[in-house]
Amino acid sequence: MLDVKAILEDPEGMEAALRRRDPSLSLEQIIAIGEERRRTITRFGALRHQQKEASTQMTSKDLSPADRETLRAQLKELSAEVKALELRAKELEEEADAAALLFPNPPAPEAPDGRDASDNVVLRTWGEPRQFDWELVEHDTLGERLGILDFESARKVSGARFVLYRGLGARLERALASFMLDLHTGDHGYEEVLPPYLVLRESMVGTNQLPKFEEDAFQTAPDGLFLIPTAEVPVTNMHREEILDAERLPIKYAGYSSCFRREAGSHGRDTRGLTRLHQFQKVELVQFATPEGSADAHEALVGHAERVLQALDLPYRVMDLCTGDLGFGARRCYDLEVWLPAQKMWREISSCSNFGEFQARRASIRYRPAPGEKPRFVHTLNGSGLAIGRTLMAILENYQREDGSVDLPEVLWPFMGTRRIEAAR
RNA sequence: GGAGAGAUGGCCGAGUGGACGAAGGCGCUUGACUCGAAAUCAAGUGUGCGGGUGACCGUACCGAGGGUUCGAAUCCCUCUCUCUCCUCCA
């Protein structure tokens, strides 16, 4: 969330930064609330001080009964005034916070200017798309033919936008998760985390899914818990309202979970296949870094996600998202897009964001630079490493053979117990 | 789900209406002593907000929210969580 104090100190600067993302944003209202809150608190402090001093007079032994009564009557008035000011200050603080929660993170200065996805910048491309001299089959058709993706059963059991993996499909999901987790914990220094899939509202606010994007989340009926849309939510909130030791930073977690998304507003889009489902699995990389270390941490993190695609030998490119396409909480974001030869398109398979202190401020995650020093907000970062359904989709499309079977990337052989998924008959 | 107990600073733990941001201890930091360390002694040691260029000043916070009172860590109400026993369960 935005820092109301910082807004009051530099209104023009903050507004200019925000408008790189969306020229229609205005801070006028939040400034008015913030200033009134400040005045109210100052006056409250003064009156409260007065009240405290007068109150100690009440304890004096040489106060006559009549004087005591007079003083009591005066203090009753003062007390009411103090109470009213305190209440007002609280209201204004809540108003200011509620307003601040609805503003997106100002982009990093390095983020390229632009309005939408067409202005994103290709930073680099890795791998050579394979050449095929026969007509490729899209992954959903291929998966159904192989008997490893069962959309029909999933529709019967759960409705639209679900899949049921079976046989080697189910095993391939599990293999990919294991491979990715082993890589990140073994080579990249992450601690493996398997988090709860249901979280409190506070956690969703901490990582900025709420209050603005409530319609995107599944919520359980009587208890009000939310199904996580990404492991980012429980893993980042592990340290909510904590002050971390500087020596522990950067803290790196690789969280594996199912992810649940209502996909409100995407009706009719990506309705086929594994691309956009209400439930999918993902390995999510999360880092807590110092402000000084966060830019390097971001580069490292995207590199860790790239390693997965390289190990699977899937061609991809790295996009630097422009200011207009950045996610709500991100100040800088790199997307990895994998090449899908059957669909003949690049498709996002990982999104690696640096949130700066945006989430840390919402969730109150701080660190102490040195003993005795004041706590500062950490920087939080996260990125998919990778989305497993889309990875599986990319393997089916990139590794298919003319006879309808699918080769498996070599690194998965130990996990799969086979080198190929054979076509049925 | 039933019965009981509890929630105070980084930790332990006192405190039942005013002198309490809160005794005492532990831990931590700095200084003294020491060749150095240990031990000992002394001082310091929370977070947010508001004001001030600043040393600093003010204010709030004793699980959360409300209430009583001139005044609440302390009294009353509601909620949450934790622990113990029973029940249930993977």
Describe the largest sheet: 8 strands, mixed
Q: If strands are numbered along the chain, what order do they take across the biggest sheet?
A: 1-10-11-12-15-9-8-4
Q: Uncertain spans, ≥5 residues at pLDDT below 50? A: none
Might you state the CATH topology name of the largest domain? BirA Bifunctional Protein, domain 2
Strand content: 15-25%
Count of DSSP-assigned helices? 13
Distance between the termini: 57 Å
Please tally the β strands and state the result: 17
What is the 3D shape? elongated
The CATH superfamily of the largest domain appears as: Bira Bifunctional Protein, Domain 2
Set down the secondary structure blueprint:
Blueprint (H helix, E strand, L loop, with lengths): L3 H6 L1 H9 L8 H30 L7 H36 L20 E6 L12 H8 L2 E2 H8 L5 E2 L2 H19 L4 E3 L4 E2 L1 H6 L19 E2 L4 H5 L5 E4 L5 E10 L18 E11 L4 H18 L4 E5 L11 E9 L4 E10 L3 H6 L1 E4 L7 E2 L1 E9 H11 L7 E2 L5 H4 L3 E2 L4
Parallel strand pairs: 4-8, 7-13
Antiparallel strand pairs: 1-10, 2-3, 5-6, 8-9, 9-15, 10-11, 11-12, 12-15, 13-14, 16-17
Helix pairs in contact: 3-4, 5-12, 7-12
The chain binds one RNA strand of 90 nucleotides through helix 3 and helix 4.
